[in-house]
Amino acid sequence: MEKPVFTGKFTQQEPIPEAAIEAAVAVLRSGRLHRYNLIGAEEGEVSALEREFAAYTGAKYALAVASGGYAMGCALRALGVGHGDRVLSNGFTLAPVPGAIASVGAEPVFVETTQALTIDIDDLAAKADATGAKVLLLSHMRGHICDMDRLMEVARAHGLQVIEDCAHTMGAAWRGVPSGRHGVIGCYSTQTYKHMNSGEGGLLVSDDAEVMARAIMLSGSYMLFGRHGAGPSVDHFETVKYETPNVSGRMDHLRAAILRPQLADLPAQVARWNALYRTLEEGLRNLPGVRLIERPPQESIVGSSFQFLLPGWSGEAVRALVAACGARGVELKWFGAAEPVAFTSRYDSWRYAPPQRLPRTDAILAGLIDMRLPLTFSEADVRLIGSIIRDEVMGASRDAVLSC
Ligand SMILES: *Cc1c(COP(=O)(O)O)cnc(C)c1O
């Protein structure tokens, strides 16, 4: 019998909602795309998005910017991180995270990874002691949130300021507190492959008026900070406005217009992602050779991607599984690959950072498989994907037994 093949596309997102298209067309017709190109007391799409995103996350202040990577670099600058400073971060993350640290001339210090794919809090404490670093850029990589209560306790004890990279956790929470609201600044991305899609884009939130005043100046506010409805009052800019360099990275009305209807839809989209995630999780349960990542009850997830571990598998066996699934249309990414491929790269490929060894992270990445779950997939699609992976994993273990 022919083996079933999956024909969906792992990189195909849903279309932009009609309401967003109409709002975008209205901006285009106005000709006023720049965020400060406003008439009279008009709020404008960017400020409206900031106000709505602040309300959504429960933050005092929000700032919309050009990308998630820009949001992180801006956050680091707003905390005063500069040349030669050391910044703690996850050993398992994506390139824009160490890139943001390098962009301010600082040095990333990578922290080990647990079996839950989260930052190793014991290693964090040890490296905070060893390096004297004052800032942690915490990446909630692939949506996995560490024990945020314990992490914040360790951060306080070590005098660490925490910036959260929520590129994969927009809409997620830890014990009811939205991701991005534990540290001093939360950073988000609205790039096409994240939870809202404006092509490129980013957001920052904070409750700290000084920090947000600096972020607004940095983003390129041309002394128009009074036009930020979701920013601190103008008295907070008194000295900041002279001391803060302009590193332009504003968002424009066109992108904000596209994002506002998506923000309104986000809770419903999260529910759809989680239905796909739980369906796939069921399909892969109790599969010998595969270890699933159990999600803690404190975590409210956004299941926009799925990971599992192949503990003890050889590189050759992992490569064979990825190829076999790929031949049946199931696009798996392997974080253990020696060479960086597309979005997937390892900390040792980021050679602008001082060389570091993370044996526990290496062991995890050696068996870590990753897959996107775009909302263009149905639950039936995801059941088929699960059954294909199941088949191929069982086939692989049969081959392993036969070759012994
Ligand atoms: C996508 C991403 C970002 C931000 O990326 P941009 O492409 O700059 O918007 C940050 N961190 C992680 C982990 C990401 O995947």
UniProtKB/TrEMBL annotation:
The active site is at K194. Keywords: Aminotransferase, Pyridoxal phosphate, Transferase. SUPFAM superfamilies: PLP-dependent transferases. GO terms for molecular function: pyridoxal phosphate binding; transaminase activity. The modification N6-(pyridoxal phosphate)lysine is found at K194. It holds the Pfam family DegT_DnrJ_EryC1. GO terms for biological process: polysaccharide biosynthetic process. Belongs to the DegT/DnrJ/EryC1 family. This is Aminotransferase DegT. The gene is wecE_2.
